[in-house]
Specification:
The complex is a heterodimer of chains A (about 525) and B (about 270). Chain A is mostly helical. Helices cover about 80% and strands about 0% of the residues of chain A. Chain A is built from 21 helices and no strands. The longest helix of chain A has about 60 residues. Chain A is globular, with a radius of gyration of 28 Å. Chain B has a domain of about 160 residues: Rossmann fold. The chains are: A mainly alpha (about 525), B alpha/beta (about 270).
């Protein structure tokens, strides 16, 4: 216990100290502060509009939240996932003579600071947004910090640490939790549809006695109702059941035998977590936590030599993937295209901005995904790319060619739904696709420029901000070109000038990034 | 003493380790040898308690999962993973608290100085090179004053001075009666250290050999002789001959911990 507390407190203290030394922390804090000021104000207006700015509203929100969070936590504990162990824990903590349950609770404790902050904000929000009296929110705060955490910790120990529960029992529990979530969502949707799409019907459903009678999750809702809305026969009875359950689970967790069999799953999870974490830091989005990437068998015939080998190697990698070049970017493109179509067809469209909404949305998507550089981000970090005996320009082009092709495919996925719904002329569609591809190529080459210009000065986040700044400039220039073209020659000129500006930018960037790439392989290596 | 008795481990349908038994007595340096993918890592992870297994593992006669066993057992993994947010010194402090070590004043300093870490003691784990991390990992293991220590490829990433120091440490541990088990492919580095070697292949112990048995034979030659022999036997079996227990042919004993010598290994 002593060592666990030491590890926890020292890590926390050093993390805070290190964060305070980074300028980006203050940027994040400023953004968080801005949200903290803006969000409650907006929520208050929204809740007033929905007639939810009351203690009833607060109880409904907590009930809905509980039905979402509690089963999903049960699922992750039963699957022995969701507890974030690092490889350092596997190295130092797992073999140490520390109680196995304490090792379980250590990871659980890691979430405590975030939980404290969240609950404090909820308590403050409860007073300001929902107008609940302060002492009730204080009681809720204490209840959630102490009782809820102890209860969840007990459940976590019982599920994650259990050595009696076999895989079959775990699977049943997972399925039952999914079923519970499904039933509640279905009942809620049913109430919404039955009462002629009335939001009040959903609120009525969340406050119903039947909901509070559902074991565990419902009993939690009963405690919340008792606190915020006063006693009823049902919520008092179910609250008693909640506290009985609390005592039973705590006693069971304390008595349960645990000899560390969970280490094997925790170690696997730690391996996966480190892998996904490092891939995210490299700007890749293809790896998912807890899901092993399945690769098929594929073959490519290498044609040509030198830098072309990079292109064929990437092609082989893509061919081995389940969905070839289609990935999360494709999903985002499709979703964005569908949303534009929906807004156009069912929500009055975009007025005079109709002709430019697709390229504007595309630019926005490229901008927000600036930090995700995909294969290219990995390529410029591996020495093998630099060791290939070929010209820097050829290497740059061949190493990015597959991603440019990917951008071309994603552009069509993006543009097709709005093209069909808005009946866009083919020329506009083609220009839009070309614009997306040019902008995406610019994004790839900006990465090299940033790496050489500020790679040794700024950290990962700083570099991403600089990348974002440069991409913002490029988009700004392209938009300026489009406006200028529109003023002097209408829509065709707007698209034409926008493409001209983007193409010009790409040529400039390609030249600079070739020089930068050359510098990276000769000086920085 | 480290006893591994009838250890088996399956990953899904793959039998990684199949009824492996061996024993390393007090004051003995054991070497675990075997080609890649033969189950050495699984044996190590089982001893450390990181994987579920069938069979028994005892440290000084205590089941390895018990706290009393873990208190006297140290482990140096192949790839060190330090806490990003703990300094070198804080890693040592954590070990002192976790293992209840009564470190004498200056003991930690002496240990860090021995591995040239004293000037790095305020560096965070994330700021160290791989070699430095390995040194911290070794220091943390030594700080425990272990009765049984398991070193998995401990020399990878170390500079020559650190390798020399580690060899000296192993000899000191042996001299004070500790059990040392080293898994390594760097046979040249352990040639003057070992007392008994266990050769593994395809999840089995093919044989165990003491230094006295082998005489002047080089570990490397022994390794190739044993694993080559295994291949011949496998080829012979593939051709339909009667099964040959290679482990017993090449090895010293079939029981995990035979009486008398205190050294032994059992295969399938």
């Amino acid at each position: 216990m002593n060592s666990i507390l030491y590890l926890y407190c020292t890590t926390f203290r050093n993390r805070i100290r290190q964060a305070l030394h980074k300028p980006v922390t203050y940027v994040y804090l400023a953004i968080a502060l801005l949200y903290l000021v803006m969000l409650p104000y907006s929520f208050r207006i929204l809740l007033r509009e929905w007639e939810m700015d009351s203690a009833e509203g607060m109880a409904a929100v907590f009930t809905a939240f509980a039905f979402w969070v509690i089963p999903s936590n049960l699922i992750s504990y039963a699957k022995r996932k969701g507890m974030v162990y690092r490889l350092s824990d596997v190295h130092f903590l797992f073999p140490a003579p520390v109680g196995f349950k304490w090792i379980l609770l250590y990871t659980f404790l890691k979430t405590l600071p975030a939980y404290l902050v969240l609950n404090f904000l909820l308590a403050a929000g409860g007073c300001y947004v929902f107008g609940v009296v302060w002492w009730k929110m204080l009681v809720y705060f204490l209840f959630s910090i102490f009782l809820e955490n102890i209860l969840e910790g007990s459940i976590m120990v019982l599920l994650y640490g259990s050595e009696r529960m076999d895989q079959k029992a775990r699977d049943i529990l997972v399925k039952a939790s999914y079923a519970l979530m499904g039933v509640i969502v279905a009942l809620g949707v049913g109430a919404y549809l039955k009462e002629r799409l009335s939001f009040q019907a959903v609120l009525y459903f969340l406050h119903s006695d039947q909901v509070q009678m559902i074991p565990f999750v419902g009993w939690y809702a009963a405690v919340v109702h008792l606190l915020f809305l006063g006693p009823t026969k049902v919520n008092v009875a179910c609250s008693i059941l909640y506290f009985v359950l609390f005592a039973c689970l705590l006693a069971a967790a304390a008595r349960m035998r645990c000899s560390g069999e969970f280490f094997e799953d925790a170690m696997k999870f730690a391996d996966d977590y480190e892998e996904v974490l490092s891939s995210r830091l490299q700007g890749r989005t293809d790896l998912r936590l807890g899901k092993k990437k399945k690769l098929g068998k594929a073959y490519v015939k290498y044609r040509g030599k030198g830098a072309r080998a990079i292109f064929y190697r990437q092609l082989l990698e893509y061919k081995k993937q389940r969905f070839f070049i289609f990935d999360i970017n494709t999903v985002v493109s499709l979703a964005a295209g569908c949303i534009i179509s929906y807004l156009y067809l069912f929500e009055d469209g975009f007025g005079s901005f109709n002709d430019f909404i697709v390229p504007a949305a595309m630019a926005y998507v490229v901008l927000i995904f600036t930090g995700f550089s995909g294969k290219w981000g990995k390529e410029i970090r591996t020495p093998y790319t630099f060791l290939i005996p070929d010209y820097a320009f050829r290497k740059l082009v061949y190493a990015t060619a597959m991603q440019v092709f990917q951008a071309f495919a994603n552009a069509w996925v993006f543009v097709l739904p709005p093209a069909l719904s808005m009946r866009l002329p083919f020329s506009t569609v083609a220009f839009t696709v070309a614009g997306y591809v040019l902008l995406y190529a610019c994004k790839l080459y900006v990465l090299v420029v940033v790496e050489v210009a500020v790679g040794n000065v700024l950290g990962r986040v700083g570099k991403q901000f600089f990348q974002l700044f440069l991409m913002g400039l490029i988009i700004g220039f392209a938009a300026f070109g489009a406006v200028l073209g529109f003023v002097f020659g209408g829509i065709p000129a707007a698209y034409g000038l926008m493409l001209f500006v983007l193409a010009g930018m790409l040529v400039i960037l390609l030249t600079i990034s070739t020089l930068c790439f050359y510098r990276m392989e000769t000086v920085n290596r | 003493m480290l006893e591994v008795i009838d250890l088996s481990k399956k990953y899904g349908k793959i039998q990684a380790v199949d009824h492996v038994s061996f024993c390393v007595p007090d004051g003995t340096v054991g070497i675990l040898l075997g080609p890649n993918g033969t189950g050495k890592s699984t044996v190590i992870k089982s001893i450390t308690g990181l994987v579920r297994y069938t069979g028994q593992i005892r440290i000084q006669g205590i089941p390895s999962r018990e706290l009393a066993a873990r208190r006297i057992f140290a482990y140096v993994p192949e790839i060190p993973s330090l806490y990003d947010m703990l300094t070198v010194r804080e890693h040592m402090e954590f070990i002192i608290r976790a293992y209840g070590v009564r470190a004498q004043e200056g003991e930690v300093d002496a240990l860090l100085a021995r591995f040239e870490l004293l000037d790095k003691q305020d560096k965070l784990g994330s700021e160290l090179s791989k070699g430095m991390m390995q040194k911290v990992s070794i220091c943390a293991a030594l700080l425990i004053n272990p009765q049984v220590i398991l070193l998995d490829e401990p020399m990878v990433g170390l500079d020559p001075a650190a390798i020399k120091e580690l060899k000296q440490v192993v000899l000191e541990l042996k001299a004070r009666g500790a059990t040392v088990l080293i898994s390594t492919h760097m046979l040249e580095m352990v040639k003057e250290l070992w007392d008994v070697t266990f050769v593994m292949n395809e999840g089995h112990i093919l044989g165990s050999y003491t230094r006295q048995q082998v005489g002047n034979e080089d570990l490397e030659e022994l390794f190739f002789a044993v694993t080559g022999q295994a291949k011949e036997a496998a080829d012979a079996c593939a051709q339909g001959c009667a099964a040959t227990d290679v482990g017993l042919q090449g090895g010293a004993a079939a029981d995990a911990c035979p009486q008398g010598t205190g050294i032994g290994a059992g295969g399938r």
